[in-house]
Amino acid sequence: MKALEVLKEHRTYRNFDENYQISDDELQNILQASRQAPSWMNGQMYSIIVVKDREIREKMVALNPGNPHMLHSSVLLVFVADLKRTKKVAEHYGVDYPVNEGLDPLITAVTDAALALENAVIATEALGLGSVVVGSIRKDIAEVSELLNLPEYVLPIAGLSIGKPNVEMRSKPRLPEEAVIHYDTYQDYDYQLIEDYDDTMEKFAEARETKNWSKKFADYFSNKPNQKIDEFLKMKKFFS
């Protein structure tokens, strides 16, 4: 498939053929495409954990039962922000490594991981397969980190379940362009655009949604952010 077609037709799949096994060539093509993602200064401050072990995946689903596809897909990739590699470099040269004194290194590593993740999504769809990004692995971030034996300076960002879809999905409508695209400077917009999008998504009628788009995020952000993330960042030396 042509790149633009793949990008414009993106959709998320959550149901996979459990009998389908991704080939080694397919997996390597996805991983190679992922590793060619752009990164700050070519720092590549991420790592990819390829999770095939059924027991590990069962434990991840036990922590996150709303995402059974982590077990039923052909493979689960976990993308992590990785500042451990540059810690090794600092130790090699005998220089300080004060990454816990500001947010910029963390933002850089998270961005690198996200770019690699998106390349994997595109490559997966170009191969005629499907995927779903699993950001909720951060809900139990310490337990997931222990399962995957992640060292200090390594932060789980998201999983990616990949497989052969067995339920067709529609391409989900996006926010109106006027609410997202800004030229030259950020420009405010009328709230009516958000209400219009609520109507669009209501007509789209995704079965798993129980609230309209705006109410879902009003409720989500009315709660205090997940404090486990803050605790984990300190434990893993991202913050002093």
Main sheet characteristics:
4 strands, antiparallel
Structural class: alpha+beta
Measured on Cα atoms, how large is the radius of gyration? 19 Å
How many independent structural domains? 1
Please identify which CATH superfamily we are dealing with: NADH Oxidase
Q: What would you call the shape?
A: globular
CATH fold call: NADH Oxidase
Distance between the termini: 47 Å
The tally of helices reads 11
Weakly predicted, low-confidence segments: none
Taken as a percent bin, the fraction of beta residues is 5-15%
- Please bin the fraction of helical residues: 40-55%
Number of strands: 4
CATH class: Alpha Beta
Listing every helix as H and every strand as E from the N terminus to the C terminus, the arrangement reads HHEHHEHHEHEHHHH
Mean pLDDT: 96
Overall description:
This protein is of the alpha+beta class and 240 residues long. The chain has a single domain (3-171), classed as NADH Oxidase (3-Layer(aba) Sandwich). It contains eleven helices and four strands. It has helices at 3-8, 24-35, 54-63, 69-72, 84-93, 104-126, 141-147, 177-180, 192-204, 213-221, 227-235; strands spanning 46-51, 75-82, 130-134, 154-163. The protein has a four-stranded antiparallel β-sheet, sandwiched between helices. α2 runs antiparallel to α6. The longest helix has 23 residues, at 104-126. The relative contact order is 0.17. The mean pLDDT is 96.
Attribute tags:
alpha+beta; 4-stranded antiparallel beta sheet; 45% helix; 12% strand
